[in-house]
Amino acid sequence: MKKVSRRQFLATSAVAAMYGYSGYALANNGKTRTEPSSSLPWSNWSGNVVGYPQGRISPNSDDELAKYLKSTSGSIRPVGSGHSFAPLVPTTGNIIVADQFNGLIGHDSEKMTATFGAGTRLSDMGAALQQVGQAFFNLPDIDRQTLAGATATATHGTGINFQCLSGYITHVRLISPQGEQIDIDETSDPALFNAARVSLGALGVITQITLKNRSPYRLKQRSWVENTNHVLDNFDQHAASHRHFEILPLTHSDYSFVVSTDETDEPINNPPPSLEEEAAMGAAMRSWMEIPPEDRPPLINGLAEQIQPSEKIDESYKVLTNIRNNRFNEMEYAVPLEAGADCLREILNTIRDKKIDVVFPLEYRYVSRDDTLLSMSSGHEDHAAISVHRVASEDYRPYFDLIEPIFWKYGGRPHWGKIHTLGAPELAKLYPRFNDFKSIRKQLDPRGRMLNDHLRTLFGES
Ligand SMILES: Cc1cc2nc3c(=O)[nH]c(=O)nc-3n(C[C@H](O)[C@H](O)[C@H](O)COP(=O)(O)OP(=O)(O)OC[C@H]3O[C@@H](n4cnc5c(N)ncnc54)[C@H](O)[C@@H]3O)c2cc1C
Questions:
Q1: For 184-204, how does the pLDDT look when each residue is reduced to its tens digit (9 = 90+)?
Q2: Best residue among 58, 62, 79 to mutate for probing ligand 1, ranked by most atoms within 8 Å of CB
Q3: What domains lie within the chain, and their CATH numbers?
Q4: 177 in ligand 1 pocket by Cβ < 6 Å?
Q5: Any residues with CB less than 8 A from the CB of 407 and at least 6 apart, and which?
Q6: What is the pLDDT of residues 296-326, one digit of tens each?
């Protein structure tokens, strides 16, 4: 067997899964749709959420947006780049696109803050920040999200010392559902500030966001394969000794991909992955997918043992994020840090014992606490975020339905942008300030024009 890198394995495991068989494939793959109308459909990144909005509004200024909101009363939903798996966006009214609120608006070199249009993609921000002598503290796994979209769901990366992106917000400009412009920071209105930093697009349309940043830096990322139990036993030490640390446990295997990331002054060395090697690896994996699941563990362990350690060095924003070309659906919960390893082990054992036919690795990350009202990591304790994935062409429901109660058992809170089945009664128990958010939402949007069916379930509104 040819030696492979983690990057090749990850890219090709999704490809292999697409060609493999699944006991769970159902006709509609769990898609969420609103009723068709005469308008064009809107779909999210993975294709599991499809809606038929009346229209698409793309205002070019705060004034134009305010005028539109003042002169209309119908349902609206703001949309970013559609990278959420949860049905946050679909509406029978209009979707509001903030793509004209784009780019760097200004920066403050003393305070190390920078203000961007809320529709700016994270992928356009790293280089712009570097030009003004600033850099993100942390980033999520990909950078295709918009700034408003990513922060609306408390999108996070990994690192025990790093909050979700919303934790770095110092100012938000919100245009309320009635068209009132509200500039919010910690001193102007602390309660509204903590609500607006993770708003699920339920408080109004955000048009600009200011982030606290740091000076530019370079990162060295190392990846290798290690026994999952071994690395979990020592996870806290690794998390404390590396700037970023995470594992991607392989299903039906004793092994995980391990990724550590630290600051460095070493020269840039970040070669792109080879497409030819990815294709060869994909072919190899498709052949072992034909073997029954119960016979696979020795094969997967054997394959994992072949994987060579790899490393890359580049500017921080180029190392922290990845390209994910293979579409998938995802469920992610954050559990209190001390419950993380037990919860992950129970999930892996369940996948093995129930012979769930899934080859997609899980993801296990640490996220620091923050004081927003609704982030998964808000409150007094740090959290471990655990994700399960299924290739987009397969029905995720039987797999996710089996795993979700395990998250509940460990006090897990769902990622707002990912698939989960919780509603207001359960969420109120998980978030001590859930009702504060609901009151603020009601004050700003008494007629509920920003609600869709999913948000009504989340907030218990009829
Ligand atoms: C491949 C992939 C990898 C991912 N990796 C991670 C990860 O590493 N960590 C993580 O935490 N999450 C991750 N996610 C989830 C993703 O970051 C979130 O779902 C994020 O919210 C998507 O941002 P978006 O710009 O696509 O927004 P959308 O999905 O379009 O919208 C998300 C929410 O933002 C609201 N919104 C959008 N624009 C505005 C606005 N201008 N004003 C007010 N509200 C607005 C919407 O109404 C909606 O409620 C990943 C998703 C994918 C598909």
A1: 999 999 999 999 999 999 999
A2: 79
A3: 6-23+218-414 (3.40.462.10), 104-215 (3.30.465.10)
A4: no
A5: 331, 333, 335, 343, 386, 414
A6: 788 888 888 888 899 999 999 999 999 888 8
